[in-house]
């Protein structure tokens, strides 16, 4: 499985309908499931980003499809960061020269 940290900002449309954000979050979780993606955590945040999500997916294609589908709805723009666990990172550094 592939882990991602997804950072999101409301668009103008998304902030105008911010009261609907909790309902949209539930719809997002269901949408994610259709692509085999699990929403591990979802937070609304203060500061540079409005939303932070931790996602687990079977592959990068699933995340890409989910991101494009979410973006097409027009409420949020996202930045996806591939995340590595401590165990993954140990494997990576073991291969370093």
Automatic annotation (TrEMBL):
Alphabetized Pfam families for the sequence: GYD
Q: Which InterPro entries match?
A: GYD/TTHA1554 (IPR014845)
Q: What is this protein called?
A: GYD domain-containing protein
Annotated source species: Bradyrhizobium archetypum
Recite the lineage of the species: Bacteria, Pseudomonadati, Pseudomonadota, Alphaproteobacteria, Hyphomicrobiales
């Amino acid at each position: 499985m592939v882990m991602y940290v997804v950072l999101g900002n409301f668009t103008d449309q998304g902030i105008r309908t911010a009261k609907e954000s909790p309902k949209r979050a539930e719809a997002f979780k269901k949408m994610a499931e259709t692509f085999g993606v699990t929403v591990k955590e979802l937070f609304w945040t203060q500061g540079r980003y409005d939303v932070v999500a931790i996602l687990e997916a079977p592959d990068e294609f699933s995340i890409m499809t989910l991101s494009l589908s979410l973006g097409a709805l027009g409420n949020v723009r996202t930045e996806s960061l591939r995340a590595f666990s401590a165990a993954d990172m140990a494997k990576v550094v073991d291969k370093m020269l």
